[in-house]
Amino acid sequence: MNKADSERMAGILENMGWCYTENPDDAKLILYNTCTIRDNAEQKVYSYLGRQAKRKHSQPDLTLIVTGCVAQQEGEQLLRRVPELDLVMGPQHANRLEDLLQQVFNGEQVVATEEIHILEDITKPRRDSKVTAWVNIIYGCNERCTYCVVPNVRGKEQSRTPDSIRAEIVALGEQGYKEVTLLGQNIDAYGRDLPGVTATGRHKHTLTDLLYYLSDVPGIERIRFATSHPRYFTERLIHACHELPKICEHFHIPFQSGDNDILKAMGRGYTHEKYRRIIEKIREYMPDAAISADAIVGFPGETEEQFQNTLELVEDIGFDQLNTAAYSPRPGTPAALMQNQVEEEVKSDRLSRLNHLVATKAAERSQRYQERIEEVLVEDQNPKDTSQVMGRTRTNRLTFFPGKIEELKGKLVKVKITQVRAFSLTGTIYQ
Ligand code: SAH
Ligand code: SF4
Fold it and tell me: Which of 363, 264, 361 is nearest to 317 (CA)?
């Protein structure tokens, strides 16, 4: 989501006439789009900022901006810490960058962190890829997971209308994009805040309805979406993914913990049994679907036994990929105030044990690709071996194979898999 925000803001800057430079020390304007999901993400910006703030002393016309979740969380305090800053701007204000910069150029120091209605974006993002694109469908999050800073910094849920989403994707199709990933912190919440109910009393605009509405956009061959929440994941959605040929068989459904008491303390609103049922259901419809997730170790009070339940879930489900993290206390969240914090050494020990299991299971899952013929959407050259190109299978496995990027970029290619690794594959074009 941060990448999508960065691309939108870069688009606004480009539209204003700014151009991009590789070397930050040459830049006349620097925008740091920040993340505060864990402390180590937050700390990064301070180290970068220090250097540029110093440069500003000899180069007063340098414009320094901090956007994103650290900006939202720290607000005015950030100005006190780094007085050289010109603009501090929360994620909800991303589309207002041009207006806010005008105020800066008029000599003001601006802090924009108030909760606002997010404006439809009229400028085109400066997208990193010409093949795959991010498309926000819902901003913010109304959940209250006790460890999580997102609702504080990204505000209340705001869905975009189906028509504006479709218009963006139609334009992407016309520009030659082949794949879109629909984005939301809790994408299953899509449409809850839009008006309209059906005859049976459910919301008129749900993620499932949106997928049907987007499924025939010309040129777009693949549709993905993230992030799913187990609390709201429906069989209707699974059915749609099965039925609609463009929806890829890959589901990113964080479970966070395999222990019911920890899940409760996290405020997640489901049990590990429910999570397992969702995955079973997906596999009933699509036996080969890839499943990925996020998990946290060392949530306050987590015992060794409770951690074992997470290992057990990972062992049983066999994820294709799992993003793991040691619990990091975040300002303004209930879990940060809990008295029973887990020691850092215990957290890092659990993290490495979990990562070890994840790699083993992912390698097992990769085995099924051996000798298979997979459809790969070519995105780029392999940076480590320029005689190869790289792309992803429908199930989101990174795949390398010999070929020329000038000929293959943006093409769907049948590839015979000859080598499998835990998180990637190698093959050759299948004629
Ligand atoms: N909206 C998504 C993900 C949000 S943040 C969801 O509900 O799953 C991405 C991931 O960061 C989370 O899934 C969680 O695993 C991790 N995360 C969030 N807060 C964290 C914290 N305080 N410490 C460690 N990991 C955290
Ligand atoms: Fe954070 Fe929970 Fe919202 Fe995800 S659903 S962004 S983890 S509060």
Answer: 361
Q: Is the pLDDT of residue 122 over 80?
A: no
Query: What mean pLDDT value characterizes the chain?
Result: 96
- How far is the C-alpha of 371 from the C-alpha of 416, rounded, in Å? 6
Say if 292 falls within a structural domain: yes
List all residues whose CB is within 6 A of at least one atom of ligand 2. Answer: 141, 143, 145, 148, 150-151, 185-186, 229
Instruction: Specify the residue with its C-alpha closest to ligand 1, atom 12.
Output: 294
How far is C-alpha 47 from the geometric centre of its chain's CA atoms? 24
**Are 102 and 151 in the same domain?**
no
Is 103 part of a structural domain of the chain?
Answer: yes
- My answer on whether 379 and 337 are in the same domain is no
For residue 273, give the nearest of 249, 300, 250, 255 by alpha carbon. Answer: 255
Kindly give the distance from the C-alpha atom of residue 149 to the centroid of ligand 1, in angstroms, as a whole number. Answer: 9
- Whole-number percent of the chain with pLDDT over 70: 100
User: CA-CA distance, 222 to 11, in Å (whole number)?
Assistant: 24
The boundaries of the domain holding residue 344 are 132-367
The pTM assigned to this predicted structure is 0.96
| Residue 235: per-residue pLDDT | 97
pLDDT tens column, 287-319? 999 999 999 999 999 999 999 999 999 999 999
Whether residues 379 and 306 share a domain: the answer is: no
Q: Are residues 255 and 375 in the same domain?
A: no
Q: Are residues 67 and 150 in the same domain?
A: no
Cα torsion at 47, 4, 102, 70 (round to 10°)? -40
- The closest-lying atom of ligand 1 relative to the alpha carbon of residue 227 is 2
Judgement on whether residues 398 and 419 belong to the same structural domain of the protein: yes
Give the Cα-Cα-Cα angle 362, 363, 367 (nearest 5 degrees).
115
Task: Give the residue, by CA position, lying nearest to ligand 2 atom 1.
Answer: 148
Ligand 1 nearest-atom number relative to CA 328: 23
For a pocket test of ligand 2, which of 73, 136, 147, 150 has the largest count of ligand atoms closer than 8 A to its C-beta?
150
Q: Which residues are near ligand 1 (CB < 6 Å)? A: 37-38, 147-148, 150, 185-186, 227, 229, 254, 256, 294, 296, 325, 327-328, 330
Rounded to the nearest angstrom, the distance between the alpha carbon of 339 and the centre of ligand 2 is: 22
What pLDDT, in 10s, does the model give residues 344-394?
999 999 999 999 999 999 999 999 999 999 999 999 999 999 999 999 999
The CATH code of the domain that includes 153 is: 3.80.30.20
The per-residue pLDDT for 355 is 98
